[in-house]
Amino acid sequence: MATGYLPEELRQGRAWLLSLDLVCWDFHSIVRSLNDTLTLSFNGVYHKYDQLLPHLTGDISVVAHELTTLTIRHTEQWPEMSIMETFGNAEMKAWMRGATRSLSTANITLNKCSLQMLEGADIDNLETLGIEVCSLPSGQNDDVPQVLQALLDANPNIHTLNITTRNNDFDSPVIYKRLMKVLAVLGTGVRRLSIKDCGTMFEEINVNCDDFFNDLASSAPSLEHLTLRTKHGVDPTMSPRIESPHFYNLFEGYLKMQNTLKSLEYNEEMPVEAERLVATILQCPNIVDTKFVDGLPLQYLVPFSRRLDRLMVCIDLDITEVATEVLEKVYPFLNNADRLYLIVRDLEPPIVPIINEVIRRSQNKQLWIRIVPELLDFSDAEVFDPIAPVVESNQNLSFFRFEVECSRAEKGDLAALRNVIEQHPTIINKSTALTIETEYVPGW
Length: 444
Fold this sequence. Notes:
Elements lengths: L7 H12 L5 H10 L2 E6 L6 H9 L11 E6 L5 H8 L2 H10 L5 E5 L2 H8 L8 E6 L10 H11 L5 E6 L6 H12 L8 E6 L3 H7 L1 H11 L5 E5 L1 H4 L10 H13 L5 E4 L8 H9 L5 E4 L3 E2 L10 E8 L8 H7 L6 E8 L7 H10 L4 E6 L8 H5 L2 H7 L5 E7 L9 H9 L10 E4 L7
Parallel strand pairs: 1-2, 2-3, 3-4, 4-5, 5-6, 6-7, 7-8, 8-9, 10-11, 11-12, 12-13, 13-14, 14-15
Helix pairs in contact: 6-7, 8-9, 9-10, 10-12, 12-13, 15-17, 17-18
């Protein structure tokens, strides 16, 4: 059973299912077999194996005999020798071998002992490996590249690697070096790579972007899916935006020579320095799915003829300075995407005609529009009401979503649009087509 950030209804359902564990032993066996996801987190409190083992193997344990997902994490306060003592015990080793036979996903803190625990497990089906690169006492990571490479070599089915970096402001260079050591041993088996920065490590990538993109290209030549998520993209107040022209030039060069890449996800807002990169992304014949959480600026789009699974574009007040002829050349190509996402950052009257033009011309299978203005200081009806008749006139719309993210938005402001959607002959998702979020919801 999945754990973590679940919708409320699923969390309640999971709690209800676990409560059935107490009904009888037959129910217990069923619940236990379904509870195949386990997270062990060590945060500085010392636990011996004889304290941990009964929770994993005892008759009343609710942990499945065979896991599909195992997460083992610890902080720098947890001594490495304590972990080795815990998992080096013969009984714990036996449990690990049995519990990991069906393991498909493993998430660990990147250090020697965590890797060796997996290395000694009886794993045949491991496909996804998640590793957290963080600050650890010196010496603990000296042998990590060799041990990680041995693990990847021993498990050729690992095709997805998810890397999360965590650091303080003062140790970004150290974390960057550890990341580069990981990238150096990826090999041809890795098809999906995700790098998520929860600190300021991308500032080091920005400074050392030559090495980063060169090593990425040489160490993972068969990469098909790449995700880069910066801290700034999640919380702009915590980290500066990447605006270096050199970074985006190298990013563009990497995409041009990485002809196996099929999908690309990036969560930074695209500055003017990235205009050429946007053109390359649209014209790369192999990239069919793009997810740019903040969207590609509409005015940067260039003509492209191939089909895309997904295209995310954005508009703000800057677009009002773009010549109408430029936009007229862009609009037809938006229909080359099966799923079109339009992110509207500034919602003011001059923006509305552009929104309407996108809706009017849309022939996409799915059209999503998200309104994310910082504030509304004018009549909401002045903006929303003109959109309703355009939606009504487009009989090509099938799956349509119109989301407003603003603390001042009221359901009454969207009454005209809501009525149109309810009566629309071709929109199939009427009950979910219109939503209002009063708090920030990251991404899509």
